[in-house]
């Protein structure tokens, strides 16, 4: 049987002595050294393009394969150094089958085999003539054996990939039937390497659409599912498209007529000069099936540069008003089964265009590698400064959670050095800027409505408003870099979990304090335990909260001040905190974590502090907080000194607004203390220096609170007469600066807390069950 080949280019003969490009000569040499290839001839394809024509085959697959690949195929290895990928392989047999992994070609041109998915910039690093020949044989073999497309590979698209692109909203197909939903395409916003990209713009479709000459008219049709199979060539015209789809069991004639009719409301007309074409964009949504299940819906587009009214006439959808350039819905003729002028549909040439949808939330999560994480929850971010906005932007770009944003401040010019905001945002409320950016990150619609997720106010000024805001929230992120928000929230009756994040003044460390899921360990206790970690860790705590290198005045007022910190450090810590909050938010336990960055080596060291259960006592109009670690420390010091009493100073911090006293540490007895079985007289050696160091390491927050001591075995923890006298003296001293003074006494099984001559006794956790 005679095999017919396509006459591709101009024959130059079979001599390798021709003045050919060196890479093509090298390929010819490789063919001469390989028994699987016989050189037929050289050809000139165009001015700068040459081809080596060979008969290729290694006999490694069944000659009767169902695909129709022959054991010997005539191939043209085409070289065009002016193209982005200089090499192409063409199958010259005129009846070479259409298969998967072929490139789009013009009608009546040889099939183009898709050998590589990587760009030439990657392939050329390892490309050689010998590997190129082997790749061609591999393509023939794998295609013949139907192995080129693996079972776990994404389904093949129905048509080849075109160049120009149209981008649709992520929910375009879901909202097609919504009343008033309409999109338009204006002039292309972007062009890259000669390819144009058009973005859809969602408009108010309540009024009758009035199309302008430079706008596309989209016609969208969703087909019934098509079985995964061969790749089709691009249809040349509308009739060709209908035939190709009908051959796959999908008819769109009726849907196309209805879609065109929907463009012209009842009683109104489509007005357009008869001698001018319209820019029609035909969008097809084609569900692809594998094993009886729809795996995905592919979207294809075709540009039709013809008159919409005349197309509607030929399809039986519209009728022209005699003597006028007006087309109306044809409700009578629509009852017929097929197009009236089916023989004229080949006069509507189709130009393939790419259709892309903005990614859905689920797709964004898959692209970000977080699809397995819990992502559907509601949260609030308080504080949209440099850190808060950076973290919020990361989560928005991952589509992790649904957020509302709270900040009372506006973007100032000096913020731009390390804020995600851009110049045009100066003067805009930070919360509104963040909400609008998050809403528009994957949306083509206007972002004005996104302001409903923004609150321009201080977070805890109105607790009634705050209670309503947090009612349906799962998590609160405090990035305000203040103590007010976490302390105020500690006392609220809420179910939302609180996580506090901040960067230390020097920019070298970042901190995460996250409550447990039950809300038992609140942020006030985590703050105290964080300070204790600083005070008890000499390896990293000594310089952890040391001040910034410098402050800069950005205005005339004494409060117009900002700190000096590189955006590099903000971005570094924002990335760490954003990821860690996401990973840890699914865990039950409370978290105290610190990350230290070494500016010289670039390493980051993590410190994980185990959070302890809090304890508290209501006494003298105050709530005194401590935790089981402090109890354990005092009990251990007591046990070591029995039968003598022991004690020391208490350090911590006071919040007068919420009336809380938080104990951070119970210090051991100074060396000059007097301990006997009946009394304890606390010495003074090193005490003042110790308290000063506590203030220095914590930025002045942790200071002297009062005293603690132990009672002998068998005694209760109530204050003795002598203890009362000592407490009176202590309260007098502390009253000089208006501070309360507390005394804590630990015994065998209880601990007492005294303040203002009032005492509350609490069981030790060791004995409480």
TrEMBL record:
Residues 636-730 form the JAB domain. Gene3D superfamilies: Cytidine Deaminase, domain 2, NAD(P)-binding Rossmann-like Domain. Coiled coil: none annotated. One of its GO terms (biological process) is proteolysis. GO terms for molecular function: metal ion binding; metallopeptidase activity; ubiquitin-like modifier activating enzyme activity. The keyword Cell inner membrane does not apply. Keywords: Hydrolase, Metal-binding, Metalloprotease, Protease, Zinc. Residues 380-605 form the THIF-type NAD/FAD binding fold domain. The keyword Ubl conjugation does not apply. Pfam families: Prok-E2_A, Prok-JAB, ThiF. This is UBA/THIF-type NAD/FAD binding protein.
């Amino acid at each position: 049987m005679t095999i017919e080949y396509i006459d591709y280019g101009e024959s130059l003969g079979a001599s390798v002595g021709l003045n050919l490009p060196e890479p093509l000569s090298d390929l010819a040499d490789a063919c001469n050294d390989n028994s699987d290839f016989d050189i037929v001839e050289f050809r000139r394809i165009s001015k700068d393009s040459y081809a080596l024509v060979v008969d290729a085959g290694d006999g490694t697959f069944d000659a009767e394969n169902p695909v129709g690949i022959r054991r010997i195929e005539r191939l043209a290895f085409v070289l065009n150094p002016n193209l982005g990928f200089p090499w192409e392989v063409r199958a010259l047999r005129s009846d070479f089958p259409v298969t998967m992994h072929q490139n789009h070609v013009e009608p009546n041109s040889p099939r183009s085999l898709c050998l590589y998915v990587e760009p030439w910039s990657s392939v050329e690093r390892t490309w050689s003539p010998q590997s190129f020949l082997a790749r061609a044989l591999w393509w023939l073999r794998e295609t013949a054996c139907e192995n080129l497309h693996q079972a776990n590979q994404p389904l093949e698209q129905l048509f080849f990939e075109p160049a120009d692109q149209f981008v649709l909203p992520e929910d375009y197909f879901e909202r097609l039937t919504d009343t008033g939903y309409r999109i338009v395409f204006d002039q292309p916003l972007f062009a890259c390497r000669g390819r144009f990209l058009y973005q859809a713009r969602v408009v108010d479709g309540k009024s009758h659409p009035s199309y302008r000459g430079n706008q596309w008219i989209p016609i969208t049709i969703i087909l019934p599912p098509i079985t995964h199979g061969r790749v089709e060539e691009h249809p040349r015209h509308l009739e060709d498209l209908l035939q190709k789809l009908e051959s796959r069991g999908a008819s769109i004639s009726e849907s196309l007529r209805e879609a065109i009719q929907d463009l012209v409301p009842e009683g109104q007309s489509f007005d357009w000069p008869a001698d001018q074409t319209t820019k029609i964009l035909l969008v097809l949504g084609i569900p692809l099936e594998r094993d009886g299940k729809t795996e995905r819906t592919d979207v294809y587009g075709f540009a039709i540069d013809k008159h919409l009214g005349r197309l509607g006439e030929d399809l039986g959808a519209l009728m022209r008003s005699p003597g006028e350039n007006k087309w109306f819905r044809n409700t009578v003729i629509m009852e017929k089964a097929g197009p009236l002028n089916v023989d004229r549909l080949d006069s509507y040439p189709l130009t393939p265009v790419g259709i892309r949808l903005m990614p859905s939330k689920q797709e964004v999560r898959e692209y970000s590698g977080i699809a397995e994480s819990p992502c559907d929850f509601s949260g609030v971010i308080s504080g949209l400064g440099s850190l808060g906005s950076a973290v919020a932007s990361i989560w928005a770009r991952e589509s992790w959670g649904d957020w509302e944003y709270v900040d009372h401040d506006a973007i100032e010019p000096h913020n731009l050095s390390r804020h995600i905001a851009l110049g045009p945002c100066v003067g805009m409320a930070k919360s509104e800027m963040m909400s609008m950016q998050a809403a528009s990150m994957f949306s083509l619609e206007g972002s004005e409505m996104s302001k409903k997720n923004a609150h321009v106010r201080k977070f805890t000024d109105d607790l009634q408003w705050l209670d309503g805001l947090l009612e349906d929230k799962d998590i609160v992120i405090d990035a305000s870099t203040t103590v007010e928000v976490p302390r105020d929230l500690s006392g609220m009756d809420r179910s939302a979990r609180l996580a506090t994040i901040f960067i230390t003044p020097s920019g070298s460390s970042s901190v995460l304090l996250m409550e447990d899921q039950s809300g038992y360990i609140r942020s006030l206790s985590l703050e105290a335990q964080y300070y204790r970690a600083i005070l008890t860790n000499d390896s990293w705590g000594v310089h952890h909260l040391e001040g910034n290198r410098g402050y800069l005045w950005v205005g005339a007022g004494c409060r117009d001040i900002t700190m000096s910190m590189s955006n590099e450090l903000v971005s570094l810590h924002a990335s760490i905190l954003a990821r860690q909050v996401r990973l840890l938010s699914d865990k039950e336990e409370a978290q105290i974590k610190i990350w230290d960055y070494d500016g010289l080596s670039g390493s980051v060291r993590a410190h994980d502090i185990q959070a302890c259960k809090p304890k508290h006592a209501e006494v003298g109009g105050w709530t005194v907080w401590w935790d089981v670690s402090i109890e354990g420390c005092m009990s251990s010091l007591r046990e070591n000194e029995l039968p003598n009493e022991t004690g020391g100073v208490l350090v911590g911090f006071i919040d007068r607004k919420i009336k809380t006293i938080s104990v951070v540490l119970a210090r051991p007895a100074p060396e000059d203390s007097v301990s006997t079985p009946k009394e304890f007289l606390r010495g003074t050696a090193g005490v003042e220096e110790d308290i000063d160091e506590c203030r220095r390491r914590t930025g002045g927050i942790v200071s002297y609170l009062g005293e603690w001591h132990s009672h002998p075995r068998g005694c209760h923890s109530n204050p003795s007469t002598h203890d009362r006298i000592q407490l009176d003296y202590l309260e007098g001293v502390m009253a000089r600066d208006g501070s309360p003074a507390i005394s804590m006494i630990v015994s065998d099984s209880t601990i007492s807390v005294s303040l203002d001559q009032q005492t509350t006794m609490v069981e030790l956790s060791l004995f409480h069950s």
